[in-house]
Write a structure and sequence with these properties.
This protein has 295 residues and is mostly beta strands. Helix content is 11%, strand content 33%. The chain contains 3 helices and 15 strands. The protein has a 15-stranded antiparallel β-sheet that branches. α1 crosses α2 (171-181).
Length: 295
Amino acid sequence: PIRLPGGERAVAEADVGTARLPWTASGQGTASSGGAAREPGTGPAVLTLGHVAEIALAAGVWEFGTDATALEVTCVEMGPPLALGGHTPITTDIAPQGPGTVRLAVHARDAAGHWHEHATALVGEAAPVDGGGPLDGSGPGNGTEGVPGAVLGEVAVADDVPADRAPRISPALLTACLEASAPPGTDEQRHLAVRAERVRFSGRDAERGPDGSAAARVRFDAIRGDVDVLDGEGRALARVEGVVWRSVRPDTVPAPLAEMLFDVEWEPAPLPSPAQSVPDPVSYTHLTLPTTPYV
C-alpha cells in the first residue's frame, strides 16, 4: 500500500485475475462430506468473500504492524459481483474508522472506465471468541467441538498464490471451505457468500500434500451460519461467523472487461493471380444534367 498525503488513508493496487491467481477460476477445489464427493463451484470466476477477508487481514497487518492473530476482520460485505478475467486490476482503499479500526474498500473499473465498489470490510483488534480467548489453534477445535447442527467435511485445493506475498491463510482454501458450506448449486444458479459478521485466523498453516496442495476440514453450523476451518487434528485454522449466502444466476454476472472489448486484427491474405486481376467487361451509362433550371 501507498500512504496518501495527510497520513491517514492508503491505497493499494493488485491483479486478482485468473492468469495471476489460477485458483480464482471457478471449480478449482474438491470437497467431500460424509464420504460423498461434492462438485466444486461452477459458473464464471468472481471475487469471493474468502479472498476479500484475506486481503483485509493483510491490510490490517500492514496498517497496525502487528501479527495476524491479534486482528479480526468484521462486517465483510460483498457488493456487485466482480467477474475475473485473465487480468483484473483492483484498487483497495484503506481509511481509519474509529480508534484501532480501519475500513477497507475494494474498487474496480467497468468497461466504461467508471469505478465501482465491490466489497468492504473492517479490520481491528481481535475480540475474544465465544468468551474463551483468542483463536490461537492451541486446542482441538478451540471450543468448536459439539456445536449443534454442525456438518463436517474435507476440502483440498491447489494452493497457487503469488510468490511476492505469503498470505496469512490460503485464500484459496478459505474460499473452498465457504463454497463447501454453501447450499448446493445447479447449472442454473450458484450460491455466493455475500456477508460475514467476523473472520478470525489462528496463524497456523494448513496441512500440505506432496504436490503443495492445502487441505483442511470444514465444519458448518447451519443455525448460526458459522464456518470453522480445522486441520487434520481438529485444531482451528480460521473461523467465519454469521455467513450469509445469496443465490446468483451465472448469466447475471457481468463478463470480464477484456471479454467486452473489440480488437482490430489484420489477417494476411494472398494476392490475386494475374488471371483473377483482369476485371470483367463493364458497361457505363453517361448522364448529363440540364443546363436550364426547372421552373
